[in-house]
Predict the structure.
Amino acid sequence: MKNLLLGLFAVATLAASAADVTDAGIRVARFKGDREAALSFTLDDGWEDNATVAAPLFDRYGFHVTFFLVPGRIPLDDREKPAHDYGKISWARWKQIAQAGHEIGNHTLHHQGLRKLDDAAVRAEIDGGRQLIAEQIGVTPVSFAYPGNGRDDRLRKFVYAQHAVAREYESGYGGAKFTTEKANGLVASALQQKRWMVSMLHAITNGYAAFPNAGMLEEHLKYVQPLQARLWVDTFGNVGRYVKERDAAKLDVQRDATSATITLTTGLDANLFNVPLTVVIEHVTAASAEAQRAGAAVPLPVTIEADRLLVELMPGAIPVTVRWRTR
Ligand SMILES: [Zn+2]
């Protein structure tokens, strides 16, 4: 049985890499920076210590994370006493957190189980949450998390009409049985499997699924930090959109000895799907390189590596020309 599984895995890997690489040795990287795997930390419900403990901790380690808020539970007036655990942090503080680079995602207006609601009520909960976050934060959310992770195809129809990405799977962190070793092991296996891992946290010190002690989360972040050369850590919305754009990407390429002209399109809604993809140009030993979209004033970022170039490229119909001088 073991041999059979190994055999199947080898075939699948070969097929995938053959499809990725165009004849010109130019391909879209699996994850930003051609890293092997990705990790998004998501924190649900807007628990008080998400803002007082978690946000400063993630800031200290330089990780941008996603807070899935329940906006209808947050008082519009800061002086009002919150009626719910999900409303103890003010909009002003959440806006600060968003401005520090974190993502505010939509977890519905009131956190009701959506599957028991009729279509009109579902739409009110989903769209209402999105609109209130947009008004209060000043950024329209692109990401959604289902209350209680209750999801089905009827709900997806409403969710994806308004959001680029929704959380469809997750690895739970926290709770009495949580250990740092378990979380570290989940990240290690995501790296090994070259996939996108989505961590789901709730309260940190006080509230639903809080950690046995707050230091455990920091211990985990200390484990994750040095892995970043291989592991892309970013918000749910950034990684989720990258993955969808990558999977929809079509590359049109012309290449000669010192340049390549690349058109990268996805066919996706450019208002929602506007995360640059990493395009890898293999077999280049460059002394210098530049990339420019036709007609654009500002050059695009290019990273020169030992035997290849990485270009950060926003999908679009206008071609980008990359030129390099060889060493
Ligand atoms: Zn929740």
User: Anything to note?
Assistant: Helices lie at 2-20, 48-61, 91-99, 119-137, 153-162, 180-192, 215-224, 236-248. The pocket of zinc ion is lined by residues 44-45, 107, 111, 147 (CB under 6 Å). The first helix runs from residue 2 to 20. The radius of gyration is 22 Å.
